[in-house]
Write a structure and sequence with these properties.
There is one protein chain. This protein is an alpha+beta fold. The protein has a single domain, classed as Creatine Kinase, Chain A, domain 2 (2-Layer Sandwich), CATH 3.30.590. Helices cover 31% and strands 14% of the residues. It contains 15 helices and 15 strands. Strands 1, 2, 3, 4, 5, 6, 9, 14 and 15 form a 9-stranded mixed β-sheet that branches. Strands 7-8 form a two-stranded antiparallel ribbon. The chain has a two-stranded antiparallel sheet with strand order 10-11. A hairpin with a 4-residue loop joins strand 1 and strand 2. The chain is globular and about 60 Å long. Its EC number is 6.3.2.2. Keywords: ATP-binding, Glutathione biosynthesis, Ligase, Nucleotide-binding. Belongs to the glutamate--cysteine ligase type 3 family. Pfam families: GCS. It comes from Hortaea werneckii.
Length: 460
């Protein structure tokens, strides 16, 4: 909270930042076996990132893996992309090496840059491996769908279907999954309606569920009704956070413009999700839905039975209607067209946090927004982070902000550089081709320009 107020005081008057933006592309790394006519997820993320981080030519062009490399890069005239780890050990994230502007040349260069990223990633993989842009791997959860093979039912995930080794080995990721499970008091529960054709049984029961597994206390979940009829059942964070998406982040010229973009883009989120829908299969079964959103939401849902409304409130403070991965619940622009009846009358906020933010000078709309985020507990806290409170850092604030996965994210400027107020557009699904991903990226950029140029009103 104190870090948030410090950011607010430093940056609330920040003006005339350049109109910049960037995209994030996420890949699945798959391994082809031509002889067996088989495709599996490759769990070699760490090796691939290490190879990228040690590519001297890539470093000279300003690219590489910021999480692994040390020292400054000697950037050339054309800045190479950067690569980042993701939750799944079979995933990579790639971003442009420098932000895009809004000039025509920038927009026309996006597709070529995405092709370049894919080419660079491929060059640092085994000959049989390829970076593909699919939302989910259709056979994720099939015990034979990963290479190298590891048995499921590990200590962290305790999943019937996927091993602990499927998650990034950095301590943050398996700890994140384990803490969500522990806070819930049971495993996460994903039930996706199966697609019924004329030969599908009714009721249909997921044939992959093992009701006789007794490795962990949470194995009782399925015997207590976790696996629903007519649904594909999944039980681990990997089934949500192992999904790939296309995200766009915009830097506004000032805070007010950022708040306007956040509000006016928010109603477009469901439309963007529908336009990019690309998730028809889970665990090898056709599903009766076509997007990843609800599955990711359920995969990180850390609400307790009391917060879910399944039990009376006794130890928890609120009944919380949404997962921490969900649609926005707030508007934040000081726009006269934002009528009070557009706001959620049942919004849950931490009133103490809200009052402290208002006392610190923040207006009520923005204080309400952040006080809503603060109803969540932090999921991962490292001991070394608790030794001091540095108001020139944002680590404690970002620990909460970054684990509130809403479909739009309002991002204050980080300390120590020239980055401005930003808005992150998060609902879109990744597309198979670079052309499609570039097209949707540029489409959203043009929407923001239209919103600001014509002062459009999408509240209605």
């Amino acid at each position: 909270l104190q870090q948030l107020l410090a950011i607010w005081r430093r940056a609330k008057g920040k003006e005339r930042d350049a109109l910049l933006w960037g995209d994030e592309i996420e890949y699945l790394v798959v391994a082809f076996d031509d002889e067996q006519r088989d495709v599996k997820l490759s769990l070699r993320q760490a090796d691939i990132l290490e190879a990228l981080a040690n590519d001297k030519d890539l470093l000279k062009q300003g690219g590489g893996v910021p999480d692994l490399q040390c020292g400054r890069n000697n950037k050339s005239s054309k800045t190479a992309p950067t690569f980042h780890p993701e939750f799944g050990r079979f995933m990579l994230e790639a971003t442009p090496g420098a932000p895009w502007g809004i000039h025509l040349k920038d927009l026309l260069d996006v597709e070529d840059d995405m092709k370049w990223r894919r080419q660079i990633a491929k060059e640092h993989m085994e000959p049989s491996e390829f970076p593909v842009t699919m939302t989910t791997f259709p056979l994720l959860g099939d015990k034979k769908s990963i290479t190298p093979y590891y048995p499921p039912s590990g200590e962290k995930l305790r999943s019937q279907f996927v091993p602990d080794e499927i998650a990034n080995p950095h301590i943050r990721f398996p700890t994140l999954a384990a803490n969500i499970r522990q806070r819930r008091g049971r495993k996460v529960e994903l039930n996706v309606p199966v697609f019924h054709d004329e030969k599908t049984a009714k009721p249909w029961k997921d044939p992959t569920v093992d009701y006789d597994m007794h490795n962990w206390p949470e194995d009782d979940d399925v015997r207590n009704g976790a696996a629903k009829d007519d649904c594909i059942y999944m039980d681990a964070m990997a089934f949500g956070m192992g999904s790939c998406c296309l995200q766009i982040t915009f830097q506004a010229k000032n805070m007010e413009e950022g708040r306007t973009m956040y509000d006016q883009l928010s109603p477009l989120g469901p439309i963007l999700l529908a336009l990019t829908a690309a998730t028809p299969i889970y665990k090898g079964f056709l599903v009766d839905t076509d997007v990843r959103w609800n599955q990711v939401s359920a995969a990180v849902d850390d609400r307790t039975p009391e917060e879910l409304g399944e039990q009376p409130l006794k130890n928890d403070r609120w009944r919380i209607p949404k997962s921490r991965y969900a649609s926005n619940s707030t508007y934040i622009s000081r726009d006269s067209r934002l009528r009070p009846d557009y706001l959620d009358p049942d919004l849950i906020v931490d009133e103490k946090v809200k009052n402290r933010l208002i006392e610190g000078g923040m207006d009520e709309l923005l204080a309400t927004h952040f006080a809503h985020l603060f109803i969540r507990d932090p999921i991962v806290v490292f001991n070394e982070d608790l030794r001091e409170l540095d108001l020139n850092k944002v680590d404690h604030f970002e620990n909460l902000q970054s684990t509130n996965w809403q479909h739009m994210r309002f991002k204050p400027p980080p300390p120590g550089n020239d980055t401005g107020w930003r808005v992150e557009v998060r609902p879109m699904e990744i597309q198979i081709t670079d052309f499609e991903n570039a097209a949707f990226s540029v489409f959203v950029v043009l929407i923001t320009r239209a919103i600001l140029s014509f002062d459009l009103n999408f509240y209605l």
